[in-house]
Amino acid sequence: MHGLVLFVDDEPQILNGFRDILRKEPYDLLLASSASEALLLLSQHQVDVVVSDERMPVISGSEFLERVRRGYPGIVRIMLTGQASLEVSVQAINDGLYRFLGKPIPSQELCRVIRAALKLKAINDVRAQTRLRA
User: Fold this and answer.
1) Across the strands, what pairs with 101?
2) pLDDT of residue 128
3) How does residue 125 score in pLDDT terms, banded at 50, 70 and 90?
4) Interacting residues of 113 by C-beta distance below 8 A, sequence separation 6+
5) How confident is the model at residue 97 (pLDDT cuts 50, 70, 90)?
6) pTM of the model
7) HSE-CB of 128 using CA atoms within 13 angstroms
8) What would the pLDDT profile of 109-122 be if each residue is shown by its tens digit?
9) 33: domain CATH number?
10) In whole angstroms, what is the distance from residue 134 CA to residue 119 CA?
């Protein structure tokens, strides 16, 4: 399943780890070290899936993903965090996130979740096209 996935995390070693883990997957990656950088990338690329860490300086992952929901409603959103509170978890679910994942996440699980998210995006795109034609 081809697509474009954006990872957002303020820790460079985490972003490099994602790149290493996913280098053989059949989709392209964009990496951003802040929510502002990620928002700029979203304005320049047609992203299918966003995976964001929760704990970042300036703009939290949940706030960033809410901005993505409002500005780019077709993007599948995933939160990845090592220190989520119950409040953040509940809010993420209520905001319609596709998945809420804990760190560390096994490589195979991350790959599986992203593949499933890309399939969901493709299905949603077909449904939207069908509605436009009707």
Assistant:
1) 80
2) 79
3) confident
4) 78, 99, 101
5) confident
6) 0.90
7) 9
8) 999 999 999 999 99
9) 3.40.50.2300
10) 23
Would you list the DSSP string of 70-95? HH-TTSEEEEEESS--HHHHHHHHHT
Count of positions (residues) in the chain: 134
Within 13 Å, how many C-alpha atoms sit on residue 18's CB side?
25
Measured in whole angstroms, the distance separating CA 39 from the mean position of its chain's CA atoms is 12
Dihedral of CA 42/36/15/86: which sign? negative
Helices (H), strands (E): how many in the chain? 5, 5
Band (102; pLDDT cuts 50, 70, 90): confident
4 to each of 53, 93, 124, how far by Cα in Å?
18, 23, 15
Q: Domain range for residue 101?
A: 4-133
Total domains in the fold of the chain: 1
Residue at 95: amino acid letter: D
Spatial CB neighbours of 29, under 8 Å, sequence gap ≥ 6: 4, 5, 6, 7, 18, 19, 22
